[in-house]
Please model this.
Amino acid sequence: MIRDSIIYIDMDKITNEPQSFNYTTSLITKTDRLHDMNDMNDMNDMNDMNDVNTNINDNTNNKKSNYKIRTPFSSSNTKKAFAYLRPLHCHDNNLIQQLYASKYCKKEEFLSKGYDAIFSVKEEKKYVMSIHYLNYQPNYITYLNNIMVSPPNLFTIMCEPLDRAICHFNHSNSFRSIYTFEEYYYHFGDKEKVGWTGIKDITNNYFSHYLGFRNLQDITKENIVERFSLIMIVEKEELSVKKLNTLLKTKIKSLELKNNQTTSNEYKINAFTKHKFKHNNTMDYLLYDLCCEILES
Model:
């Protein structure tokens, strides 16, 4: 018998914003940067800066909060910093090991703190690459600006949205002992407030929310390119590796991104469930298609 109750599972903590950190008073704006530049009498660096204007809906009060995040600038004396926004269950363990092995920076210059733990890191301005679980939120990005050698270039990875959902279901969801993925999605796929662990860790449009996009209008090529230096695609591994090596000036040969991946075809998801999932994940499929186009361009 299929049980009709909702079970919330305790898995990796997702996206809670620490109450002790008020990012609205700590954001870095163009005005702040201009003051810094005036002090240094170096106005030539102005051409190397841009501001990303992003509106994020506040899920609590449905209001929009406007903030500006400074994009990375060039410096001959500072090594370029990078932050890998690492989504859950994208088969990237080998990627992390390859980043370590690439020796892009010294071992002590890797930052491996995620979510709330990152705020325990002192503002040392020594970190060159962040490689742990952080999503795109202004408090995280601002804090990375504070503790890394320079405002980091962001890169991340995506896979086909349904394949990611199946992997998430298989890996960390106790629903799997009660339902098949199809049964689970039939019962809960249309419910906005149901995710693997409740509201925060949502089932639908996971990638869009993880990467900071809150509506279809925000998902454009211009916004994606402005926000991310690179979005790799699991299904386009060879090209993703090539672009990653160009970005980091490394010599990584293979990331084995598809290793142990369960696809919707292998899992034999029926046409009805596929259609329902695609209908409920319009944002993720638009984001995925645009990221594929950008990667191939």
User: Anything to note?
Assistant: The first helix runs from residue 30 to 40. The two ends are 50 Å apart (CA to CA).
